[in-house]
Write a structure and sequence with these properties.
The complex is a heterodimer of chains A (about 160) and B (about 170). With about 160 residues, chain A is mainly alpha-helical. Chain A is about 70% helix and about 0% strand. Chain A is built from seven helices and no strands. In chain B, α1 (about 5-20) crosses α5 (about 105-110) and α5 runs antiparallel to α6 (about 115-145). The chains are: A mainly alpha (about 160), B mainly alpha (about 170).
Chain lengths: ~160, ~170
């Protein structure tokens, strides 16, 4: 929006920065960085009638603030339905795909006990076998599904 | 919890959200091209993040103690069927939407209103897993898979450190 940030931060800045986030949260607060756990505690726990840990809720609120700040400063920010997809897919396909894809993300993350951050970053960095297994699995499946999407869309995606 | 831990959590949350958004996790093309194995950017970000985090955790392991949170407890849990089954479903959602639970925040933050639909689906999916899965399917599979282990009884996942019984320092 304000075009103060490039569309993409260089990988050697973003990657190590994200890694430092994981290490800092462990080293200072003894907490495992994980975004799906934060969503679970903040949004799902109240519905299910149990009390999510407060730090997870605070972490999520902070994450949203940081994301909004980057969005405001970023050069790639503009109002869309869904970047790229809404230009290619009709609404009758796009909306079920987004809702269904989100459903799979939530269902799978809770079943696997973590997502790209909790398993992929935190757990893999700690060398935990469950995280290494889950991360290898979801990346492999995501690549397979993406190739299927590419083929089914006739190369449009 | 003490104020130091709280301030750390907030600061790390802001930095994490900023970097996830700044590194293009909110853009379908960035993720999609990586998952088509045509762009190495995402893997460079992800790989260097894990490498730096692993180096940091290795140093912390040596110290054994955290600044505000007592003795360091890092996850070390065996891989179970749920980690594979759950990751298969998660990976399908990852490939379809080109985003993940943190990335969806970046989608919305960079103007992609459809990201709200992904987030609504995310919450609904978590709830579904809690409602449908736990008592029947999960425990049956787990019991068959690891009879000698104590069954996981917690309904809060994600902390890992709390109640899973598999954590060690």
């Amino acid at each position: 929006m304000l075009r103060l940030l490039p569309a993409l931060l260089p990988w050697w800045l973003a990657g190590p920065g994200l890694g430092l986030c994981v290490a800092a949260l462990y080293g200072l607060a003894n907490r495992r960085l994980g975004v799906s756990g934060a969503w679970l505690a903040a949004v799902v726990a109240p519905v299910e009638g149990w009390r999510g840990e407060r730090w997870r809720v605070e972490f999520l609120a902070a994450l949203i603030s940081g994301a909004l700040a980057a969005g405001l400063l970023g050069s790639a920010t503009r109002l869309t339905g869904y970047p790229v997809l809404s230009a290619v897919l009709p609404a009758g396909v796009l909306l079920p795909l987004l809702a269904g894809g989100g459903l799979a993300l939530g269902y799978g993350a809770r079943w696997a006990e973590g997502c790209t951050s909790g398993h992929g970053l935190s757990g893999c960095a700690a060398g935990s076998p469950d995280s290494l297994t889950a991360t290898a699995t979801f990346f492999a499946v995501a690549v397979g599904v993406t190739f299927a999407v590419h083929a089914l869309s006739g190369g449009a995606l | 919890m003490n104020q130091g831990a709280r301030a750390t959590t907030v600061a790390v949350g802001i930095a994490f959200g900023f970097l996830v958004t700044g590194s293009g996790f909110g853009n379908y093309t960035t993720i999609h091209q990586a998952l088509l194995l045509r762009s190495w950017y995402l893997f460079a970000v992800f790989g260097s993040a894990v490498a730096v985090a692993a180096a940091g955790l290795a140093l912390l392991r040596g110290a054994g103690v955290t600044r505000y949170g007592g003795p360091l407890r890092l996850p070390h849990a065996p891989a179970r069927r749920r980690h594979v089954f759950g990751a298969v479903i998660f990976g399908a959602g990852f490939g379809l939407t080109g985003t993940c639970p943190g990335g969806a925040v970046a989608v919305v933050a960079t103007g992609g209103l459809g990201g709200l639909l992904v987030l609504a689906g995310l919450a609904a999916g978590m709830w579904l897993r809690g409602a449908a899965g736990r008592p029947a399917l999960d425990q049956h599979l787990e019991a068959a898979a690891d009879q000698r282990e104590q069954p996981p009884l917690t309904c809060t996942y994600g902390s890992g450190a709390v109640g899973s019984g598999t954590e060690r320092t």
